[in-house]
Amino acid sequence: MITKEVYVEIEVLRKHGFSLRKIAAEVGCAVNTVRSHLAQGKQPRYQRQKKRATKLSTHETYLCERQAAAQPQWIPATVLFREIRALGYAGGVSQLRAFMRTIRPQGAADPVVRFETAPGEQLQIDWVEFRKGADPLYAFCATLGYSRASYVEFVTDMKVSTLIDCHQHAFEALGGVARRLLYDNMKTVVLERDVDGPGEHRYHAGFLDYAKHCGFVINLCRPYRARTKGKVERFNGYLRRSFYVPLISRLKQAGLPLDAVTANAEVRRWLKEVANVRIHASTQVQPAQRLQEEQAHLQGIPPPWRGDIAAARPLDAPPPVEGATVRPTVAERIALPTPEQHPLAVYAQLLTQLQAAAEMQP
């Protein structure tokens, strides 16, 4: 039996229009083997010849009956685990989860077609929400379609001014501006879709002005099809698993909260040392390596935008109220010194010093 990797290669070659004979020559197997596996329409899976008795075997009928009674809903494995433990089950939850996967109804597969773009053609943009409430934390994520090189910036709001600032920083970090930027239906970009016909959208005036200033075209995902920007969507999950969860757990063990300053100091190092130098699963090349090629096709980095919208004041505008705190503009924030990338121990030491100083106050 051919391996899963060979099967995937057969599928890809067939989609590219290769003949059965050509595919067989490429993967090194017989033409009949190629024809047989394409006719099956699914990847080959190893089938155990004889099922072994397990600790769960005596409870399988009970589990099937419980799920059948719950249809069309689905009872979580954690709930059933508690139930069968009370009935004498002595195994683990992983064995239960494995069995549940074999009896769960499989919905119709939604085919995902991956579109590759030319260098410098597309940059995909998205927000990731990590924390709500009085102390929110969001991440602005931008991923180039060709190289898969990414930029991340943690912020505490998703206003238009913040979005524009993040774009400017992303262009500088990535070395230029793509010709097309892809978004979902965020209100800071598009206010209303198809107002004057298909594709005739009403954009946020300030952001549209910024797009013209930078020279990129705004593209929108189809409604309820955020998967259209799948490259940044997949990166968002990777960011959460590989960066956020490990960082927040380390800070929790040290008794420290995670703020945007700390997150940005750490994510810059993570992007440089981990994310953009890993071998990407789709391209099989480091994003940083392909970025060097893609940068030659990007547009130049624009100067700081001087537009005036409700959420972003002009560069020379005074504070609206005397003594009020005003968020720095793009140019002002770029002029600020970049925080050094310190290990978490430095943050812990700094917090201890601040607490000690506070206790000494009268």
TrEMBL record:
SUPFAM superfamilies on file: Ribonuclease H-like
Specify one Pfam family: rve
Q: Which residues form the Integrase catalytic domain?
A: 115-295
- A molecular-function term among this protein's GO annotations: nucleic acid binding
Check the UniProt entry and state the signal peptide residues, or none. Answer: none
One GO BP annotation is: DNA integration
InterPro entries the record matches: Integrase_cat-core, RNaseH-like_sf, RNaseH_sf
- PANTHER family reported for this sequence: TRANSPOSASE, TRANSPOSASE RV3428C-RELATED
Q: What is this protein called?
A: Integrase catalytic region
